[in-house]
User: What shape does this take?
Amino acid sequence: MDEYKKLYKRSVDDPEGFWVSWPKKPGLDKKWKKVLVEDFAKAKHSWFVGGKLNVSYNCIDRHCKTWRRNKAAIIWQGEPLNETER
Assistant: This one.
């Protein structure tokens, strides 16, 4: 619990530093220019501005290097249930 409180305090006191130092950063195709742009008056916050995230890589491709490389990613089952799987 002490570690949690310490991390929480840092995330509140220094949100930019907290997120930039987090050990597992998402795989980006393009690095961000600014970590946080915030406007409390308009309730608008933008994180990792200018960065480009490759969702396909993060959700599927990076896991294929070590896990389920030669397995089907999606199995489609038609209706009625006796129809052939694809």
